[in-house]
Amino acid sequence: MPEGDTVFRTARMLDATLTGHQLTKSDFRVPQCATLDLTGYPVESVASRGKHLLIRVADLTVHTHLMMDGRWDVYAPGERWRTPAHKVRCVLANDSFEAIGVDLGLLRVFPTRLEHKAVGHLGPDPLGHAWDPEEVRERMLMRPDLPIGLSLMDQRNLTGIGNIYRSETLFITKVHPLMPVGAVPDLARIIERCFLLLHANKDRNRRKTTPTELTDPYWVYQRTGRPCYLCHTPIEQMPLGPPEKDQERLAFFCPTCQPVPYREQTEPAAATAV
Ligand SMILES: [Zn+2]
C-alpha cells in the first residue's frame, strides 16, 4: 500500500504539471462523477494530506485515495498509456500534460469548502506544514491500551504511516508491535522517527530505511525468516490490523531486538518471591 511519502511525491508531480493551467480535458470514469466536465477550469493547487490527494479545480476538490494499488501517471499529450484503459479512473489534461489516475481506491468531487469533512479527522501529517508531534502523542495516548503497532497506523493519530513505516520505526526504536501505547517508554522518539523516515524518503524514488552500507532497503519489512541485521535472529511476522486486509497488514519484527511486552510483568513476580 502506498505510504505518505508516495502520495507526497505524487502530489508534487501533479502540482508541477497541472497547477496554474486550464484543463483541456477531464474524464471521470466513475458513475457518480460521470457527467462532470471540468474542461476550461484552472487547477488551483494539488496537495497531499497523509495518504489523501486533493486536486483543487476552480471551487471544487477532486479527492482521491490510492488505497492498495492506485497511482497517478503523467504523459505527454497523445502519448500511448502504459496501462490498460479499463484501469483508468480519471483523466485530467492541459496543453502540455495528461495525468491519469489508475486503480484509484477512492475518487470523488465536492466543493473545496467541504474539504474538512473529507480529511478533517486526520491527525498531523509529518510531511505537512502543521506537523505537531506533541499533538500526535496526545492523540495516541487517548487509547493507551491499543497496541503501538495499530496506533501508529490509525490515521486519526498521525497520517501517512502504513505497514512499512510501522514495522521499520518499531524495529529502529526496539519496541514490539503489541506493546500497549501507554507502556511504551519513549513515545515521542517513535513519533520523531516516523517524521525523520518520511522526510528522508520524500525525495527518493526507492524507499530506504536502512543505512547506505546495507543493500537491503528495510530492516524487517517483508524479511520474514531472514536473519536480523543486528542480532541474526530470524525476523518474524504477525497479522496486526483489519482481518480483511491481513496480507497488507502484517507487522514484521525481530523477537530479540523487540522483546515481547508483558515479560516484565511475569519476571517481577518471581523476584517478589525471592
Ligand atoms: Zn534483532
From TrEMBL:
State which Enzyme Commission number(s) the record gives. Answer: 4.2.99.18
Residues annotated as domain Formamidopyrimidine-DNA glycosylase catalytic:
2-159
What family classification does the UniProt entry report for this protein?
Answer: Belongs to the FPG family.
InterPro entries according to UniProt: FPG_cat, FPG_N, H2TH_FPG, Nei2_N, Ribosomal_uS13-like_H2TH, Znf_DNA_glyclase/AP_lyase
Q: What Pfam family is a match, any one?
A: Fapy_DNA_glyco
Tell me what organism the protein belongs to: Zhihengliuella halotolerans
- GO biological process, any: base-excision repair
Q: Which domain of life is it from?
A: Bacteria
What GO molecular function annotations does the UniProt record carry, in alphabetical order?
class I DNA-(apurinic or apyrimidinic site) endonuclease activity; damaged DNA binding; oxidized pyrimidine nucleobase lesion DNA N-glycosylase activity; zinc ion binding
Q: Which SUPFAM superfamilies match?
A: Glucocorticoid receptor-like (DNA-binding domain) (SSF57716), N-terminal domain of MutM-like DNA repair proteins (SSF81624), S13-like H2TH domain (SSF46946)
Q: Sorted alphabetically, which PANTHER family does this protein's record hold?
A: ENDONUCLEASE 8 (PTHR42697:SF1)
**FPG-type domain mapped to chain residues:** 219-259
Protein name, entry field:
DNA-(apurinic or apyrimidinic site) lyase
| Keyword list, A-Z | DNA damage, DNA repair, DNA-binding, Endonuclease, Glycosidase, Hydrolase, Lyase, Metal-binding, Multifunctional enzyme, Nuclease, Zinc, Zinc-finger
